[in-house]
Amino acid sequence: MEDSWSSSVDVHLDWTPGSGRHALANAVRAAIRDGRWRSGAIVPSTRALAHDLGIARGTVTRVYADLAAEGYLHTSQGAPTRVATAGAEALSSPDPAYTHRPPRQWNLMVGRPDPSLFPRDLWTAAAKRVLQHTPNETFGYGEPRGSSVLRTTLSAYAGRSRGVRTDPARIVICAGFSHAIGVLGRALRRVGITEMAFEDPSFVRFRAFAAATGQHVVGVPVDEQGMDVTQLNSPAVVVTPAHQAPMGVTMAPARRTALAQSGALVIEDDYDGEFRFDHHQVGALQALAPEKVIYAGTASKTLAPSLRLAWLVLPRALVDPVVSVIEAEGVYVPMLDQLVLADMISSGAYDRHVRRCRLEYRARRDRLVAALPPHLIPRGISAGLHLTIPMSFSDESAVPALAARHSLAIATVGESRIDADGPAGLVVGYGAPPKNSFGGTLAALLAMLQEM
Ligand SMILES: Cc1ncc(COP(=O)(O)O)c(C=O)c1O
């Protein structure tokens, strides 16, 4: 059906001739959000659309490139451009980040920790302590920047565990990194920054959140040494230096230094920094340039994504703009959860839990790597809850149908790619399955790989 919607078919866009490139991009975004340009459908070729609208082909090419970077369109080498599937759903559904895969028996989705590892007992004990001792003010409206107790605790924790240079006054609590990226998109506009670069590949939902704040989103290629800093030309950039998402590489020391000295404002997404499996410690990039790097930590991997708890360590000049965006939004993280996390960290329970999880995930990583067929060489295995398996474009494009047949929820690098010529492969989120089903999930993956 969707393939019949070829590049020569007429499409309607609410666009006034002469209104410019940004208006054209808005018209295409609206067509995708409204479902008029359907998820997965082939879009008109740049030549055909330029002809129909009576504008230069280069204008359409730039609009398509921008929309691919934002996650609305999906470009693929040697294939027509399509409306993105995950991206289009993410941009139109009310709960974009965590529902974009149909239920399958086996889950290897990147970015998910094992929900069965949530420390129910430790959380209950900490919640009890908090409720017994917290003053009545806890039940008021709270602070837009977050609980001072949690900010003080996190200041010590981020310094001790990740080498972050901070004090409580620089810390702001957000409802997950997903919330933080939107807050930052707005705050950066207030200080005159209107373009944000992201690694290519990088997760589409974060690019979409930034684009939704009016930021122009562009991609910077990633190779074996992490993001290629020489290709960065934007005033702000979001990076995952400790364990690139999704490729898994660690940014090389020379690139870290170059990035810290580049003059760009860096948003360091340290989403799984607690899970390093080798002895090669990779501290926070933020320590190299605390006034140029925004450090972002999250409880989504160590505890649970549903807590919606993340923290930003900000350059001093950005504290007020960020707090005023949060105040204007009126969205604060629940105070009791903040206090429970603070209690868990200061009692040592959080560190013990993280250590236990690290052992579990490392054991899974070892089992997975040992079980892979020898011709598949995994990458990004030193850290985090996922690794990648590089593969050809044609093997990658076979994955969705094969995964469905094996009832496996799994992502490809292609879903995160901005440039159609970028890397291809499979992203194996071995952290996702509950402990008791890891064996079955691994067997499903191996059965799928055998058919490729
Ligand atoms: C690359 C990356 N950054 C950040 C996060 C954390 O996002 P949040 O704090 O909104 O759960 C994730 C979670 O999947 C991630 O994969």
Automatic annotation (TrEMBL):
Start and end residues of each HTH gntR-type domain: 18-86
InterPro entries with a match to the protein in the record: Aminotransferase_I/II_large (IPR004839), HTH_trans_reg/aminotransferase (IPR051446), PyrdxlP-dep_Trfase (IPR015424), PyrdxlP-dep_Trfase_major (IPR015421), Tscrpt_reg_HTH_GntR (IPR000524), WH-like_DNA-bd_sf (IPR036388), WH_DNA-bd_sf (IPR036390)
Keywords from the UniProt entry: Aminotransferase, DNA-binding, Pyridoxal phosphate, Transcription, Transcription regulation, Transferase
Keyword Ligase: no
Keyword match DNA-binding: yes
GO molecular function, one term: pyridoxal phosphate binding
Gene3D superfamilies for the chain: Type I PLP-dependent aspartate aminotransferase-like (Major domain), Winged helix-like DNA-binding domain superfamily/Winged helix DNA-binding domain
CDD domains listed in its UniProt record: AAT_like, WHTH_GntR
Similarity comment text for this entry: In the C-terminal section; belongs to the class-I pyridoxal-phosphate-dependent aminotransferase family.
Protein name, as recorded: GntR family transcriptional regulator/MocR family aminotransferase
Biological source species: Actinocrispum wychmicini
